[in-house]
Amino acid sequence: MPEGPDSADNRPDERAGERVGERVGTLRICFVSSEAEKAQQALGALKSQYHGVETPEEADVVVALGGDGFMLHTLRALIGTGKPIYGMNRGTVGFLMNEYRTGGLEERLASAQALKLYPLRMRATRVDGTIEEAIAINEVSVFRETRQAAKIDIRVDGVARLNGLVCDGALVATPAGSTAYNLSAHGPIVPLGAGVLALTPISAFRPRRWRGALLPQSAHVDFEIRNTQKRPVSAVADSTEVRDVRHVSIHEDRGIAATIMFDPEHNLEERILKEQFAA
Question: In order of start, what are the domains of the chain with their CATH numbers?
């Protein structure tokens, strides 16, 4: 498949690993962890073995200990700073994490591949007219709040594409997030270099046969909520929820990026590919 104009930005950056490797022995590492007991124990073990710095601002690399939820939190917190984040799994699934080992950390960081992730930017307008913005590494979703199904009009780049979608909700997912909630909602897995976003309905009732769409990464998506009093809807950007919305706009923000690092043998591109062949 021909490469998109920005597909190279979504590939592992071996040079980033080489730059880190030049400083083996003097690498400034900041360890951060979730509140989970396993993560806290790992934090203590690594801090006793390696000399770390106290804050991400002082660090060359941030090592995050926890699960995927904590990794997403860390990526959002450090997005735009240029600080690479290397995760080790002390949670459940750990799709965005590397294997947890205490030994050889500096060597692993030296050979790790860096990947830039561009977030989705959500602008949600509430029924009362107030506006809230948030970013998402995985997806932006809208959900019904009550027993009443949501009724949503969908526009892409200002063009009406689907009017009156009756559903539990809908979402827009990045390639990195396409294996998360998007996959559970029967959306497509999107390779990192594909240059597209996934637009996926959640339990669509009408039209029954609509399964979503693949959109160019430059697309601007608008969800217009109908009958907001009878059919209230929430908007969620990863973990940021805005209730009682009437309009949600979503686009990929290529002005900022989060940098995540993986061991070469378990990079994110390979993990997403494997998911397409999982039983």
Answer: 7-118+257-275 (3.40.50.10330), 120-252 (2.60.200.30)
Q: Of 138, 172, 134, 136, nearest to 154 (Cα)?
A: 172
pLDDT at 25: 55
Q: Are 89 and 271 in contact (CB under 8 A)?
A: no
Using the Cα atoms of residue 145, residue 149, residue 155 and residue 156 in order, give the sign of their dihedral: positive
pLDDT(17) > 90: no
81-98 average pLDDT score: 94
Phi-psi sector, 208: left (phi>0), alpha (psi -120 to 50), beta: alpha
pTM of the predicted model as reported, rounded to 2 decimal places: 0.84
d(CA 55, CA 22): 22
Q: Reply yes or no on whether the pLDDT at 139 is more than 70.
A: yes
Counted residue by residue, the chain has a size of 279
Whether 245 contacts 233, CB under 8 Å = yes
CB-facing half-sphere around the CA of 119: CA atoms within 13 A: 25
Instruction: For residue range 222-233, list pLDDT tens digits in order.
Output: 999 999 999 999
Three-state secondary structure readout of 121-161: EEEEEECCCCEEEEEECCEEEEEECCCCCEEEEEEECCEEE
**Residues noted as catalytic:** 68
Q: Binding-site residues, please?
A: 68-69, 73, 138-139, 168, 176, 179-184
**Could you give the dihedral angle defined by the CA atoms of residues 125, 127, 130 and 136, in that order, rounded to the nearest 10 degrees?**
-30
